[in-house]
């Protein structure tokens, strides 16, 4: 069974994380007076800002659609992260080390399962996409580039849509990812 993050650590993450910084990475925030910030809500389409952030309390609220919460809630709602993933991401940003405990309250060294496995898999997918897009520029991909060009794709459009080229070697990607430090377990 997976260990859970101690409540004290979750509270520490909430206290140490600057909610304006977390939300400001996704939303352009402007001063709303009284220490509050406002911007366009990322959860619904709007033209006038109804999304308010109160850094002193560490919370946000949208008066248009009613969503609200703290930095953890923001990441779970916007990025689709689990609660634990959001806490781990924010703790990493704040430079905090989390302590995990089992159901009996005994301290564990880390989360059960591989810590950061989801991030490693996302990194592997990113590396694979970069591999294929890089191969599109190779001499062997001339036919693929002609195919894209015939359909109105220039270099910028191909980059925007992540177009790539898979070489004939069946193990080219696996070799590339292994050279980047990914294990066989992570790739299967």
Automatic annotation (TrEMBL):
Its cofactor is Zn(2+). It comes from the Bacteria. GO terms for cellular component: cytoplasm; DNA-directed RNA polymerase complex; primosome complex. Keywords: DNA replication, DNA-binding, DNA-directed RNA polymerase, Magnesium, Metal-binding, Nucleotidyltransferase, Primosome, Transcription, Transferase, Zinc, Zinc-finger. One of its GO terms (molecular function) is DNA-directed RNA polymerase activity. Residues 37-91 form the Zinc finger CHC2-type domain. InterPro entries: DNA_primase_core_N_sf (IPR037068), DNA_primase_Znf_CHC2 (IPR036977), DNAG_N (IPR013264), DnaG_primase (IPR050219), Znf_CHC2 (IPR002694). GO terms for biological process: DNA replication, synthesis of primer. Pfam families: DNAG_N, Zn_ribbon_DnaG. This is DNA primase. It comes from Glycomyces artemisiae.
């Amino acid at each position: 069974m997976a260990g859970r993050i101690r409540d004290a650590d979750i509270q520490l993450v909430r206290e140490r994380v600057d909610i304006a910084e977390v939300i400001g990475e996704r939303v352009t925030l402007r001063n709303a007076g009284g220490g509050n910030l406002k911007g366009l809500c990322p959860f619904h389409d709007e033209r006038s800002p109804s999304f308010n952030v109160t850094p002193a309390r560490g919370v946000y609220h949208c008066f248009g659609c009613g969503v609200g919460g703290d930095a953890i809630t923001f990441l779970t709602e916007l990025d689709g992260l689990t609660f634990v993933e959001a806490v781990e991401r924010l703790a990493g940003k704040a430079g905090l080390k989390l302590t995990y405990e089992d159901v009996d309250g005994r301290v564990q060294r880390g989360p059960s399962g591989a810590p950061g496995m989801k991030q490693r898999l996302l990194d592997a997918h990113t590396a694979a996409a970069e591999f294929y897009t890089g191969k599109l520029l190779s001499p062997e991909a001339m036919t693929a580039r002609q195919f894209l060009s015939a359909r109105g794709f220039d270099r910028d459009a191909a980059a925007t849509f992540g177009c790539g080229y898979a070489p004939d070697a069946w193990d080219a990607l696996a070799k590339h990812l292994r050279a980047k430090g990914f294990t066989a377990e992570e790739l299967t």
